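Subject line: Sequence and fold of a protein, written as structure tokens
Enclosed: The protein record, placed directly beneath this head.
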Amino acid sequence: MNDANATEILARLKPRDRNLFVSRLSTIEQQEFLYRWPFWARPEQMPPGGDWSIWLIMAGRGFGKTRAGAEWVRQIAEGDGSARFALVGANYAETRTVMVEGESGLLSIAPPKLRPVWEPSLKRLTWENGAQAHLYSAAEPEGLRGPQHSHGWCDEIGKWLNNAGQAEAAWDNLKMGLRLGFRPQLVATTTPRPVPLVRALAGGEAVITRGRTQDNDLHLPVAYLTAMTADYGGTRLGRQELDGELIEDVEGALWTRAMIEACRVSRNAVRVERSRDTLAPSNRSLDFARDEREIGFARIVIGVDPPASAKGDACGIIVAGLGADGKAYVLTDCSVEKASPETWARKVADAADRFDADRVIAEANQGGAMVKSVLHAAKISLPVKLVHAARGKVARAEPVAALYENGRVHHVGAFPQLEDEMCGLLTGGGYEGPGRSPDRADALVWALTELMLGKTRVPRVR
């Protein structure tokens, strides 16, 4: 029975039976069992198969990146006395405290009898069979010029100092010194950040392992995971630090990630009330718990960008409201992928009921009469306004992007798919976002144009 099968069998046991299994092992067996990494590791923490030179583990915080890197070093060092490692961190202090002495570092994960000798003054680890690892700082790239190695482990390369090109110089010097052994290899572990070194590796020859903080939920406090999801889920920071996504701004985009983050309002601090049955529509409100403000809605509309066919693009469906403070609030993204006309029309009708919408703004270029009839078939009383696109998507989006620059639009929560499309629209024309067309972003533009750029506006309440 191999380690993978044994792990699966053990995982299926009830806690009592699992404890009983471990208790029946001898002391020596328990010690070996505790330090058998292939038994405990998740599949994505194990080295990839095949012939590779660089393994990039790019994942969220708490994923287990450091442990995976340290166990890779340990596996090779214990089996090959000729191995010579370079351990490179953002600076020497982090290389020592995280990669060597940390709770997932090389000293902690090694069985007592196989633990390497640590010589801080020499910045060196030595295993009993002769394998060695030397510590380096990425902030001092010249220290990697000259020494030879067979393997290298670089931790948190996304935070390496690079104001004068140190990070890239350290990486280059390390690679040029990998000239020992039959198959030199490098492992880089990092939380993704769109810095030059990470971008180059992610788009180059490296074998990439991606992962999320949530993947390691068995070893992280539930309260921590709940708090992180509530506070950062879907935001740029959360997608980067928790979901392990490499998020970059496209040069020349109408919207930047920073612009969108600046306009975000936490969904937990906002309550949207439906009140058609009990109050006048103008009494619909956003309740901001943080600063104890309540903003009444003058209007709520739904922007719709219908697809040309059920097998084509998504149907963009965006709900937005005009606050009595004169600002627009993007409330939700109800868009659907590859839906039939009946399906997306029902989605629009449901959103109109849920948010007590005053009007649906639908693009009519793909057959205006059909769009209106489909929406009315879903709900006959649905107030529909058809709009015709005389200009391209980017030209229509430019004045809306200006509203964001002026702080006149807020996103109530996070809308990752919508925001990815927004950040793919380029000044002067062009689209470099996900999918063939920015359907969600186009629906957003229709909704905000109606609320903020139309001929009639509701006066600001002071």
Notes: The two ends are 74 Å apart (CA to CA).
